[in-house]
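On to my pick:
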Amino acid sequence: MPGANTHAAGSRRIKADLLLLLTAVVWGSAFVAQRVAAEDTGIFIFNGLRFLVGALVLLPFALRRQLPRTSRTPFKPLPSILLAGLLLFASGTLQQFGLRYTTAGNAGFITGLYVVFVPLFLALGGKQRLRLPVWLAALLAGLGLFMLSTGGQFRLARGDALELGGAFFFTFHVIWIDYLVGKLPVLPLAIGQYLVTALLSLTIGLALEPGIRQTIQAAWVPILYTGVLSIGLGYTLQVIGQQVAPPADASILLSMEAPFAAVFGWLLLQERLTPLQITGCGLMLAGMLIAQSAPYLTRKRTSH
């Protein structure tokens, strides 16, 4: 029954898209918690603890499931999970450092630039054609970043530069996860990358920063909120959603974390943007949407 199969596929895609939108809401709100923690805690210990919490939250669910047999194809899961964890560690570290010097709203919009970077890097790697809308999206996003971060002056604010570096690493993380979701079960992949990130962060943090007790006392609420929701729930929903949703859908919906971060920063931290910065946010959001919706719409037209 082709009609029933089409309906079922459409239903699965809608559910996947809703999961990705929920992920964007969770991640957007988490920028507020991370911004609060960045002022009073060690970056590495805070990240290590919240990623460890995220892994522990998921561990009972993973233990209940029987893992499928390893594929006969030449694929090594441990190095692949290690690379995912390294990319997550790099992006998370730069993002948290940046939040010491910039607002939750700025961090959300700059991090969201990965939806422009993903098609750019895929094109540079020969994985897809670089279409004119992507160049337009990159131009709009770059101009928007200039207006948001510099206020029209020729300098890039320190915190925003760190967030931009984090966005680059998260770009590669999204690309790598999109490759792995067809080869590894969701929960072992999620838990594995969280544990890699937690181990690296805690090892560096214990060597360079004040002890774990001080960080827990100062930021136990942000640790639990970001560990349980942003990491345990959010990154896992990302992996689940990307199993069904096309990359275009996933990037568009996940990019909505940027306006959600700005809204939560305004509501909870009383963060303000100048009219020029608001215009920059609008240009960045337009670039994010154009970069992903244009290829998808082109595919729809050619399929009729």
